Structures are given as C-alpha cells and as structure tokens.
UniProtKB/TrEMBL annotation:
It comes from Achromobacter pulmonis. InterPro entries: Tscrpt_reg_PadR_N, WH-like_DNA-bd_sf, WH_DNA-bd_sf. This is PadR family transcriptional regulator. Residues 1-72 are annotated as: Disordered. Residues 20-32 have a biased composition (Basic and acidic residues). Residues 83-151 form the Transcription regulator PadR N-terminal domain.
C-alpha cells in the first residue's frame, strides 16, 4: 500500500465553555480511578460513505451520496489503549503518536493534540507510561504496568488496529473508484493499492446485501441465518471442530 497521507480527520467545532451541565463526568475505570475521557467531534457512527449508487464500495453499504464521513467516535479509553500499543512498538513524542494513528488509518482518524496530550499525561499518572524529558520535549515510554494493561487487552487492541488498517485500505479503494481509472493489479489479480481481490470485495458486498434484504426476517429465518454465519465464521477463523 502506498504511504498514507496525513489528513485531519475531525473538523474543528465551536469552542465550548467548561463544566457545562451536559458534559459527562469522568466515570470510574476498572481500577477504581477516574478514567480520562475526551469528547470527540462528530456524532456519526459510519466510517464513510461510498460513491453515488455504491459503485466500487468494498463493503457494499455506500450509496447515500453524502461523500466522506470521518466523524467516527473513539472513546478516551480506546485512545489510551492505542497509545500504549504504539508506545510498545516505539518510545515516542506526542506528535509522533498523532502522526502514527493518522498513518495507520490513512488519515481517517487523526486525533488532535488536545486529545492526545491529556491522554498521555493521564497514562503517566496511572503509571502506565514513563516520560523522558529532553528540553521542552517529552518522549513517552511504555511502563511495566502499561504492558500489563496491554496484555489484558491484546484482542481488543488488535481489533481496533485492524479496523484502522481496513478503513485505510477502504479509503484507497474508494479513491481509485472515484477516479474512474483502471485498477493496477498484482500477480494474483489483487488490487495493487489495497491487496484486495475483486472476488473478495464482491463476496463482502453480496453478504451485506443479503443481510439487508433479510432485515425483516422472522425468528425462524433469523436462526437459520445465524447458523449459516456461525459456520462461515468458524471456517474463516479456522475454529471448525
């Protein structure tokens, strides 16, 4: 895949005054301490929309003509966990972590400094990260307690990172679909930018269309579909008995 661009994922909104009645109070986390939460811009939950009519949309759910939608919410707890995952790979400055998340998601999610730096400070307060001061700059390192937190959440972190990798490929696929140019392909017929085979994309589209067409299915039909999906999932993950 080509080098992702560093894009701003969340548009700036009007500044809100602090301590508004509608702002959430920080809840207790699993350790009994206050979890650090940031409110993210945008209320939408879709990753982004496809071209008009769903042309080339790899997940088969485009077609509202609304253009790109990058207002996906990421909770403060998720952001903290992803920062720990990145620190495990490399000790980093805050701006390096911001760029790393933007690159991982192909610019779909690039948190602002106002979200990342308070999260890093909180991770330091919890003992999950340590700080190496070099002049005015701080380089963050993963602490042993932070590694324990990662070890307890490996599957969750892997899923989050894989979602970002998927949407990065999806954005590349969509950009090419919008361009109208023929796709460059590899030796196996895979798309050169994403690595996806056309039949893989078509199968995803067909499955999502089939599920949408059964949205009003009764309990008996839902159970039949659920059994089919469970068997398919077991085959995909290799957990068939």
């Amino acid at each position: 895949m080509r080098q992702p661009q560093f894009l701003t994922a969340f548009p700036r909104g009007p500044r809100r005054a602090r301590n508004k009645p509608h702002e959430a109070v920080r809840p207790q986390d699993h350790d009994g301490r206050h979890a650090h939460h940031q409110r993210h811009a945008g209320a939408g939950s879709d990753w982004f929309s496809g071209p008009p009519g769903g042309r080339g949309e790899p997940d088969g759910l485009g077609g509202d003509g609304g253009g790109w939608n990058r207002s996906r919410k990421v909770s403060g707890d998720d952001l903290q966990l992803m920062l720990l995952g990145l620190l495990e790979q490399n000790p980093s400055h805050g701006y390096e972590l911001i760029k790393a998340l933007g690159a991982l998601s192909n610019g779909f999610y690039t948190p602002s400094p106002g979200m990342v730096y308070p999260a890093l400070t909180y991770l330091e307060e919890l003992g999950y990260a340590t700080v190496e001061q070099a002049g005015a700059k701080k380089r963050y390192h993963l602490a042993p307690a932070g590694r324990e937190r990662l070890d307890a959440n490996r599957e969750r972190l892997s899923l989050m990172f894989n979602k970002f990798k998927h949407v990065a490929r999806k954005m590349d696929w969509m950009r090419q679909a919008w361009s109208g140019q023929p796709r460059s392909t590899g030796p196996e017929g895979e798309d050169a930018a994403t690595g996806w085979l056309p039949e893989f994309v078509e199968a995803r589209q067909a499955l999502k269309r089939a599920l949408l067409e059964r949205t009003d299915a009764g309990p008996k039909e839902q159970r039949r579909i659920a059994a089919i999906l469970a068997r398919a999932t077991a085959e995909i993950t290799g957990s068939c008995s």
